[in-house]
Design brief:
The protein is an alpha/beta fold. The chain is built from six helices and five strands. A five-stranded parallel sheet has the order 2-1-3-4-5. Helix 2 packs across helix 3. The longest helix is centred in the last third of the chain and has 18 residues.
Length: 151
């Protein structure tokens, strides 16, 4: 059984899709203050937390980071209106395990199952951005070669 908590103002489609699946237990958490939502998350201890920030009534990045500090085992999927980039991932403290565009929400069940299996749900573009950032950081950290003067 996959325990999923769903937070967001426009998540009726996701709710319907997840409720129609066997093996998924869904709990919807109402939008409230950060502390109240964190309390609800702590009480429910989901495997997957789905946060939609499409309507702008919630700071998904902050909630994701605080959820990770509360319980690092909870995997968070953020549904958003814009492609996630490296900065957005960094804003979550690198704790979000997935980002999904609002237009792709028909794949919510697949995303939840993939994340429950331990995989991330990230676009190839975001994975490339992360790899590029890691590579450039690694190269910058290495010492530059010096010419040896034998005089």
């Amino acid at each position: 059984m996959i325990k999923v908590c769903l937070i967001g103002a426009d998540v009726e489609k996701e709710k319907s899709l997840l409720e129609s699946q066997s093996g998924i237990f869904l709990k919807r958490i109402p939008i409230a203050s950060l502390d109240e939502m964190l309390d609800d998350i702590a009480i429910n201890t989901p495997d997957i937390l789905v946060i939609s920030d499409v309507c702008g009534k919630i700071d998904a990045d902050s909630l994701c980071l605080h959820t990770y500090m509360l319980n690092p085992a909870i995997r968070t999927l953020i549904i958003t209106a814009e492609d996630a980039d490296y900065q957005r991932l960094e804003n979550t403290g690198f704790s979000s395990k997935g980002f999904m565009l609002h237009e792709q929400r028909h794949a919510i069940v697949r995303a939840v199952r993939v994340m429950h299996d331990g995989e991330a749900w990230l676009s190839r573009k975001l994975v490339t951005a992360v790899m590029d950032h890691l590579a450039s950081s690694s190269l910058a950290a290495k010492r530059k070669p010096r010419l040896i003067n034998n005089k």
